[in-house]
Specification:
41% helix, binds pyridoxal-5'-phosphate, seven-stranded mixed β-sheet, 14 helices, three-stranded antiparallel β-sheet
């Protein structure tokens, strides 16, 4: 049997929606599907304002522009991270300050944030790894105490919640991704969630997203032409992609339920290995409702991970171990960080292994993975 690490899942209705866009001959951005998708996200997740973007990376870039990050500013973020978050800060001349993660979730360790706050700190950026929420109560408390902005990278956490609130909707801003590897996909795509009622910032973001122009006024029929208003860029996705995404998002619950089923089989069938101290299973803390984006385990050490990964590959099973810590990456080192700065991050990231989980995964496929993993671990 061959089990890929990940596999896209598409719905019939996506083709119909895309065809409609092509037939209309209106493939550029900010047409009816973009509006539908923005409204669907706002209603389903109780977000106050959503701006669709060309990627999750671009949503992070828009957030950095909104915060007016510049040389001398610092942003506290986990080192166990995708490069996009750090890039969005570095591209504006500001500095990432890396914090540790906690062992039970791989999310930023709320207790490690406070000692890294200086006069230069402008914000706390968090990732909800694997679609499991960070300790947002502690993080929001710290942010209000020190008057810092919170940006949530909820790229992996669309349709996941923390204490009854959807992730991406808790901090000042949230960034979502609809990349082909995520739970809901448009190939490339993302969204910036703006959670404040600050109307002038909403207006500013609308202009930044549309090449620094007030083109949205024209699209709404409020102006007959548009002009250069501010520095901005092109963050607006094609209607073709938004049509695809609309078809995906109409199936929010189906995708979550299908992935939940796979997730639960892993937990049930691997729990005895945890009891015997052979592996650690990923945890979902009290108050977190995940979206089952990732299933991972922690092994004893890096050597064992390499061996298990190679043996699973031999059996036709794809696995992965993203992320690689940023502080010890070539770019992190060039910014002056050293591997020993964050020992927990180095240790945990070297032992984590992600197992296949995708919407269309069959029960016999999960069982094949479990069976081969057990064999490998019992050797
Ligand atoms: C996927 C991902 C991104 C990047 O999203 P794109 O849409 O591919 O730009 C950013 N952060 C995290 C945590 C991700 O998982």
């Amino acid at each position: 049997m061959r089990i890929p690490f990940n596999k896209e899942y598409h719905f019939q209705c996506e083709i119909q929606y895309i065809k409609e866009v092509l037939d209309k001959g209106a493939t550029a951005g900010d047409g009816s599907y973009t509006k539908l998708v923005e409204e669907l996200l706002e209603t389903s997740f109780d977000f106050s304002k959503v701006f669709m973007t060309t990627s999750g990376t671009h949503a992070l870039e828009m957030a950095a522009i909104a915060l007016d990050l510049k040389v001398g500013d610092e942003i506290i973020m986990p080192s166990y991270n995708f490069p996009s978050m750090a890039n969005s800060v570095v591209l504006r001349g500001a500095m990432p300050v890396f914090a540790e993660i906690s062992e039970d979730t791989m999310n930023i360790d709320a207790a490690d944030i406070e000692r890294r706050i200086t006069d230069k700190t402008k914000g706390i950026y968090v990732i909800h790894y694997a679609g499991v929420g960070c300790d947002m109560d502690s993080i929001m408390d710290l942010a209000s105490q020190y008057r810092l902005y919170v940006v949530e990278d909820a790229a992996q956490a669309v349709n996941a919640a923390y204490k009854g609130r959807y992730l991406g909707g808790i901090g000042y801003m949230g960034c979502l991704s609809f990349h082909g590897t995520k739970n809901y996909i448009s190939g490339e795509g993302g969204a910036l969630v703006f959670n404040s009622e600050d109307e002038s910032m909403k207006r500013f973001l609308e202009i930044v997203r549309q090449k620094g122009t007030n083109r949205m006024d024209m699209i709404r029929g409020q102006a007959s032409s548009y002009r250069w208003m501010n520095a901005g860029s092109s963050y607006c996705p094609s209607e073709v992609l938004m049509a695809m995404l609309y078809g995906q998002l109409k199936n929010l619950d189906f995708v979550k339920a299908a992935r939940c089923r796979i997730f639960n089989i892993y937990i049930e069938q691997l729990s005895d290995l945890e009891d015997k101290g052979i592996i650690k299973l990923m945890k979902v803390p009290y108050g977190c409702e995940p979206n089952y984006h990732i299933f991972y385990i922690l092994l004893k050490n890096e050597k064992e991970r390499s061996r298990v990964q190679a043996e699973l590959k031999e059996a036709g099973i794809g696995t992965a171990f993203h992320f690689m810590p940023l502080h010890s990456s070539p770019m992190g080192r060039s910014l002056g960080f050293k591997p020993e700065d964050l020992p927990a991050t180095e240790d945990l990231s070297s032992r984590l292994l992600r197992l296949p989980i995708y919407t269309g995964m069959e029960v016999n496929e999960v069982e094949y993975v479990v069976c081969n993993l057990r064999e490998s671990l019992m050797r």
